[in-house]
Amino acid sequence: MIAIDGQSLTLAEFSDVVHDGAVCALADDARTRVEAARRTVEESVRRGDATYGINTGFGDLSRMRIEKANLAALQERLILSHSAGLGEPLPDAVVRGMLLLRANTLARGHSGVRASLIEALLGLLNAGVLPLVPSRGSVGASGDLAPLAHLALPLIGRGEVRVEGRVLPAREGLARAGLAPLALEPKEGVSLINGTQAMTSLLALSVLECRRLVRIADLVAAMATDALRGTDAAFDVRLHRLRPYPGQRASAANIWKLMQGSGIRESHRQGDVRIQDPYSVRCAPQVHGAVRDLLADVEAKLAIEMNSVTDNPLIFPDDDEVVSGGNFHGEPMALAADVLTLGVSELGAISERRIEKLTNTAFSGLPPFLTPDAGLNSGFMMAQVSAAALASENKTLSHPASVDSIPTSADKEDHVSMGMGAALKLRCVVANTSRIIAIELAAAAQGIDLLRPLRSSAPLEALHEAFRRRVSMLKEDREMAPILNTARAFLDDIDGFIEGLE
Predict the structure, then answer these.
(1) Which residues contact 238 (CB under 8 A, 6 or more apart)?
(2) Choosing from 29, 45, 52, 71, which is the catalytic residue?
(3) Which of 10, 25, 138, 239 has the CA that lies 20 to 30 A from 352?
(4) Rounded to two decimals, what is the model's pTM?
(5) Is residue 52 annotated as part of the catalytic site, yes or no?
(6) Do 181 and 157 contact (CB within 8 A), yes or no?
(7) Domains in the chain with CATH codes
C-alpha cells in the first residue's frame, strides 16, 4: 500500500504503481489538509466571492460571472468541453501514471476538492479502470487540459475506459468494478484538468527506461569495443579522475570492468598498429556519461514536479484565501524532456557509429559487413542502414518543442510550453535509440564470433552466450528483421547483466 500525501511520492513508487500495480490510498494527514482547503472553497461559495474557477467562466471567459444555481453544471461542462483530444490513445502505463500523479497533486491540500474525488481517482487506478486518453491536443499551457479532461470523464460517467485490454463505455467499466460516477461540486472540474500530469507521466516513464538504457549502452559498447579489438586504455580511471563528471566516471568504470580478462584484448596488446581508437569507441564514456548527467538533472526536476501543486486557482486555508497563478505552466517539464531527448539521441548516434565501424572492414579487419563469403552474402549491410535511418530520425525529433509556443484561448494563453509534444517526442527517441543499441549488440556478437577461437571477458562471454540462445550466428544471409527484433526484445531481459554496473 502506497500512501498518497502530495509531497513524498518517489520515482520508485511511481514505477511500483505503474508497472507492478501497487495499491494506493489517501494518507490520513493529507485527508485533513484536503478537508481544510475544501471548507475554504465552500465558504467562498457561501459568501458569493467572485473567484476564478469557482463561479466564473474559464480562460478568456473568466469575466463571465456564473450564478450559484449553475456552479455544478459549470464544472461538468468544463470537463465535457475540454475533452477535445485526438489521435491514438495513450498507453495504459501512461494513464496509470496520470491517475496517480493527479491524485497526488490534489492530496497536497491546496486544490479545494473533496477527499472523495481523490479517492475516486485512486479507485479507477486500483481497479484497473483506465480512462481512454487521446495523445494529441495539449499545448502545455494551463497544463495538459485536454488529456486531463479525458482522464476525468469517467469520474462523471462519461467517455470510455479500458479494462483488461477491452474498451468499454465508462459507466459499464465503473459498474464492473463496483464504482459509481460522481457529481462534481464547485472548483472540482478545474482542479481535475489544470496541471502537468500527462507530460509528467510520459517523462517519468521515459526516465525509468533511460535509467536502464544508459547502463545497457555501456554493456553493449564494451562488447563492440572488444569485437573491434579496441584498447581499454581510454577507460583508465586515471584519465577520468582528471575530468570528474559523475556520469563519465561511471560509464568509464563500467566499460573498463567489463573488458578486463578479455583474451581478445590480450591478443593485440603487443604490435597493435592503432595508437588510438575512433571517437565512437574512445570517447564512449564522455558521451554516455554526459547523457547520464543530463538524466540525473531531469530526475531532480521530476522529483519536484511529481509532488507539486499545479492547478489553479490555489487554496490557502490558513489564510482563508484563493489565489490565482500559473503553476500549471509546463515549461519545467517541457525543457527537461527536450534536453533529455537531445541526450538520448546522442546515445543512439554514437552507437550507430560503432555499428558502422564493425561493418567497415577497412577499420575493423573483420570480414566485410560481418559476413563470411562476402559478395554472395551481404550480412549486416542493411542493419547498419537501419541504424542510420533511426539515428537520422532522432535528429529530426530532437528539434525542441519547448521553443514552439503558439497562442491559444483568444490570446489569453499567449505563451505555452508544448510540454506534451516534447514528452511524446522523447518516447519516440528512446524507442529508436533502444533499437539502435540492439543492432549494435547483434553486430558486436557477430564480431566476437568472427574472432574465434579468441574469447572475450567473462561477463561479455556470458552476454554473448545468452544472446546466442535467442539468435544464432549469421553464417549466411537470412531475414534480418527477425534478428534485429529479437535483439531488441533481448534488451528487456538483461537486467542480470547490468545489475552490477554503475
Answers:
(1) none
(2) 52
(3) 239
(4) 0.96
(5) yes
(6) yes
(7) 2-195 (1.10.275.10), 202-311+322-404+418-498 (1.20.200.10)
